[in-house]
Amino acid sequence: MSVHTHHNSIANLRVLAIAAIVLNHAQIGIAEHTEYSAGYIIYSQFSKFGSILFMVISGFLFQKSVLKYKPTDLISKKVTTVLIPSLFFMLPWLILNIAILPFVGEKTTEVTEEYVYAQVYNIFFRSIYWFPINLFLIFIVNSFIRDTKVLKNLFIPAVLVTLFYSLNIYQHWVPRRHNSALLGYFSFFFAGRLLQVHYGMIKSLIETYTRSFLHKTGFAVLLLLFFGMAAFETYTIQATSTTDPFNILRASNIIYSGLFLVVLFQIRKALSFASYFKDKSVFLIYLIHPYFLFIGTQLLAPFGPFDSLHTISFVPAEVIYGAIILVLSLQFSKVLLRMPVIAFIINGNYSLKMRSVKSSLSTETLSQKLPRV
Fold this sequence. Notes:
- This protein is mainly α.
- It has helices at residues 3-25, 38-45, 50-66, 71-100, 113-125, 130-142, 148-171, 186-197, 199-209, 213-240, 251-266, 281-300, 315-337, 340-347, 350-369; strands spanning 35-36, 309-310.
- Strands 1-2 form a two-stranded parallel sheet.
- Helix 1 runs parallel beside helix 12, helix 2 crosses helix 10 and helix 3 crosses helix 8.
- The protein is globular.
């Protein structure tokens, strides 16, 4: 496979991951104590691979960067390309929740120090923006893990930590929501890095064990089995508590996502929609789509209240709703990338710009010192 084709394959998988994430978020009429029917749970399980796939791909791509940059340069790069754009899109939510909403409506809220802290914490670690913040923290730690042997030694402990969070869904040792599991996603990132290191061997193994009809049939049965187990686990969690029944760190969902990743790897050459997305568009879609979800919630509010049981009858509307959110986020990302100031923030070329400025200044100073002829 050529380098260009390989890059397109990875880009296609990233687009698929972000589409799955947006589709999961695009729910209509969800309240804190909403329950889900068995049919809706089965539908929703199809796209629960998105976050895990995105982490694996991020690790896969990061492994190339870790060989090119020193830790300090790598951290600087991630600050400018991940953290600053994330904070840029989180800032309006902070302003809205702290400086506007408390003073709107009949019941105003006193803005105390505790209130401000709670709002900051919720936006960073309870809202949709937990993902880029968590990803940034993983980038920071991984910037110092450069030796492949060390990476391999850390992989098993990381898997055990992930399994701890899987068990915690039932045991409640620590907060059990998936966005509270800050250490639970290192294993997926490590897996992506190791996939890059052993790409040739893993590619050969997958192609060998999915070549014959018997192997393909067995793999399909295994995929369907864990898909069913993941849906059943969601139903079981919901029966005992309505707190995050779709938690992506369910053990069955992790295995299902891994198996589905193998399927996507097999069909990667057939996927060809990355050309519609610029390099920065995928990450921008994640940062932008909460705004369109908020607008959608306000527009749909007059049609409520909705039933407390979320059934499969919502699926057609939610698929259309999710597609609209995805397209709007994509188009808006393209508009933003055409705006010089916004593009400068999003692209994170601060260090390059500073070097360019310093170089220009040095050249200018040198020319001034040179004697005129």
